[in-house]
Specification:
- By secondary structure, this protein is mainly beta.
- It folds into two domains: about 100 residues, Beta Barrel (OB fold (Dihydrolipoamide Acetyltransferase, E2P)), CATH 2.40.50.200; about 130 residues, Nucleic acid-binding proteins (OB fold (Dihydrolipoamide Acetyltransferase, E2P)), CATH 2.40.50.140.
- It is built from one helix and 14 strands, in the order H-E-E-E-E-E-E-E-E-E-E-E-E-E-E.
- The relative contact order is 0.14.
């Protein structure tokens, strides 16, 4: 998913990133670098790359180092893979170093959805971009309760055999007859109907978008997933199984 305010975030990070580590060079248990031992204050830009358990998420900092961070009960409202600024304290838990969030500086991205359209006159395809600004309704969604503790997985129809689902690209969905069981890869980019329907985008290479009736499931915006479902008469897809992918 493209984030059109990435340059803004980079500028913000340049002015705001204050790595308050005193004489310490960085924080990263995964990289084996020096880490403050006693509740050291830190301010850094991070983005969510995964979920560990409860309110603890895996994040990467501006240097690409993976960290563990407690984002509190509203952590699931942050968009995956979208940068934001965190102020917090470095502490120890049973698994090692952990950053406990105290304050977040977060700016909603404007979600981009690309669609192909016929250019008048010459018959070639052009790419148009619809920009949806403002806070998406997904922000007010409760913390996601995945069927898997480590990846977003929702098996709403108790699917045991995925071979019955026909793999298609998002742009090929409209060509399939209603009732077809399909599987496609895409990123959740917008909420069409709160707690009911989300829009999935095929990505910068695949293109196209499709509305998915979530069937009681929820996945954070920006999360790329494989969606298994049945094509409805109106062109939407009824979700039966969702498995997140990096």
């Amino acid at each position: 998913m493209k984030i059109i305010n990435q340059k803004h975030m980079a500028a913000l990070a340049a002015g705001c990133l204050l790595f308050s580590f005193s004489a310490v060079s960085g924080v990263s248990s995964a990289a084996g670098q020096a880490v403050p031992g006693d509740a050291a204050a830190v301010t850094m830009q991070v983005k969510i790359v995964g979920h560990e358990a409860g309110t603890i998420y895996r994040v990467t900092d501006a240097a690409g180092r993976e960290l563990r961070m407690d984002l509190g009960k509203h952590g699931g409202r942050m968009l995956n893979k979208h940068p934001f600024i965190v102020r917090g304290q470095v502490v120890e838990d049973e698994k090692g170093r952990l950053i406990k969030m105290e304050k977040v500086e977060y700016k909603d991205p404007a979600v981009q959805i690309e669609k192909a359209a016929q250019r008048a006159g010459d018959g070639t395809e052009d790419t148009l971009v619809d920009v949806h600004a403002g806070r998406d309704a997904a922000y007010d969604h409760a913390l996601s309760e995945s069927h898997n503790a480590y990846y977003y997985t929702y098996n709403m129809a108790n699917v045991q055999d995925t071979s019955q689902y026909k793999p298609v690209a998002v742009t090929e969905i409209a060509q399939q007859p209603a009732g077809t069981k399909i599987a496609f890869a895409g990123s959740a980019v917008a909420t069409v109907e709160k707690d009911e329907v989300m829009r999935f985008w095929g990505g910068p290479k695949a293109g196209g978008h499709v509305d998915v009736v979530m069937n009681g499931a929820y996945v954070p915006l920006g999360q790329r997933s494989t969606v298994y479902g049945t094509l409805n008469e109106d062109g939407t897809v009824l979700l039966e199984l969702l498995e997140s992918v990096e």
